[in-house]
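Quarterly update, task 2.4: 4'-phosphopantetheine-bound model.
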Amino acid sequence: MKIAIYPGSFDPMTLGHLNIIRRTSKIFDKVIVCIMINGNKKGSMFSIDRRVEQAKICTAHMPNVEIDSYDGLLADYARKFDKPVIVKGLRANMDFENEFTMASINKKLNPDMETMFLTASDKYTFVSSSNVKEIARHGGDLKAFLPWELIDEVTEMAQKGKEK
Ligand code: PNS
């Protein structure tokens, strides 16, 4: 069985993430979406447990997608599987340098893992969790960016943050 691991912080999961998950699920037998901590991002909106629940809700219609979480190195998480492939999405002008570096570091830490990239679909190439949170803070329309199941929760959370 060929397994893809799609790691990320998913704070929150966007339509761009879901697009990558859906396309990956058509290529691999199983996709494991692994919710992880990005040491460069401070002050998350949702706890890891809540992000796991959200991801389960958003991917419930995809039978070969599983949700997991891991607080540690991706290279160590990947050791749980037989030659897993890490899948990442690449957005225009945004991700290449960082993702290239991470793929090289991960390969040094765990030579058994490979990283593959899917280019983001045109309509999601400028969507990011950070942009979504900013739009939500200012009461903007999130329909083009977020799964409908998360819109109210993200809006409410962003508005609460604004009051602080
Ligand atoms: O969605 P993100 O924030 O771009 O995802 C980045 C993530 C969480 C995949 C990355 O930060 C990560 O792999 N974190 C786990 C720790 C790790 O292995 N870091 C890479 C070695 S420096």
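Highlight for this quarter: The radius of gyration is 16 Å.
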